[in-house]
């Protein structure tokens, strides 16, 4: 049981860490582009990850939410979440490889914002690659690890311990052993038994004690005396 619990914790923490690092990569600089305005004048533009691979922010946040869902999911839902983690990893890989293979195309919007020049051909003639950051390569590794993490979840789903009882629905149990998630089911049964028994109520079913009978008799006499003022109205 301890090994299964550690496997669950490490899997969830691993997905959480990879997703957080993916979101961090989105916020970092992925390199620079150099604008060749003239043979003697160059302008350097920074290309952030939010421009080069804008989808990484949503993918990172989705991975964080997925890690939280894994903590309380059942076996079948874990398989679905594991498949979604694989899909997130593939998406991260796609975004990072695209930016890594074509830095100028990935930073085209930065060039357009700075110069007003649009169009892929025009931007490629105007800009060249300056420096390259390690974050595109890091993102590729993160995407591959996310795919592996999703596969681990799918393969080891049966070895994870069950979710805690605090996440399960409340179950009521009657004295005869019957169980139901709705306490009203038991009260409905009692009402049906009363109706079938000829309109019996809890008050009539309960045994009458002598003290209660005497008290009711004395109360009736007192009421009669108050109404008649101590005289017999039949005379």
TrEMBL record:
| Record-annotated membrane-spanning stretches | 51-72, 79-97, 134-157
Which InterPro entries does its entry note? Trp_biosyn_TM_oprn/chp
Q: Look up keyword Glycosyltransferase and say if it applies.
A: no
According to the record, the residues making up region (Disordered) are 179-235
In Pfam terms, one family for this protein is Trp_oprn_chp
Alphabetized UniProt keyword annotations: Membrane, Transmembrane, Transmembrane helix
Task: Spell out the Basic and acidic residues composition-biased ranges.
Answer: 202-235
Q: Where is the composition biased (Acidic residues)?
A: 185-196
Q: Which domain of life is it from?
A: Bacteria
Q: What is the name listed in the Swiss-Prot or TrEMBL entry for this protein? A: Trp biosynthesis-associated membrane protein
Q: Which organism was this protein described from?
A: Herbiconiux sp. A18JL235
């Amino acid at each position: 049981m301890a090994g299964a619990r550690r496997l669950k914790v490490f899997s969830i923490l691993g997905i959480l860490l990879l997703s957080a690092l993916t979101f961090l990569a989105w916020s970092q600089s992925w390199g620079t582009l150099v604008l060749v305005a003239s043979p003697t004048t160059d302008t350097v533009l920074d290309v952030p990850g939010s421009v080069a691979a804008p989808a990484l922010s949503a993918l990172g946040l989705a991975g964080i939410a997925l890690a939280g869902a894994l903590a309380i999911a059942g076996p079948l839902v874990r398989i679905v979440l594991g498949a979604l983690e694989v899909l997130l990893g593939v998406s991260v890989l796609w975004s990072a490889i695209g930016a890594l293979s074509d830095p100028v195309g990935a930073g085209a919007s930065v060039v357009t914002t700075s110069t007003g020049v649009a169009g892929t051909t025009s931007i490629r003639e105007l800009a060249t690659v300056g420096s390259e950051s390690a974050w595109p390569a890091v993102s590729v590794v993160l995407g591959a690890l996310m795919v592996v993490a999703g596969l681990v979840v799918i393969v080891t789903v049966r070895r994870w311990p069950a979710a805690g009882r605090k996440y399960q629905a409340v179950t009521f149990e009657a004295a005869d052993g019957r169980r139901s998630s709705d306490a009203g089911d038991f009260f409905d049964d009692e009402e049906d038994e009363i109706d079938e028994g000829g309109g019996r109520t809890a008050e009539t079913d309960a045994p009458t004690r002598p003290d209660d009978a005497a008290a009711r008799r004395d109360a009736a006499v007192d009421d009669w005396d108050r109404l008649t003022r101590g005289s017999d109205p039949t005379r």
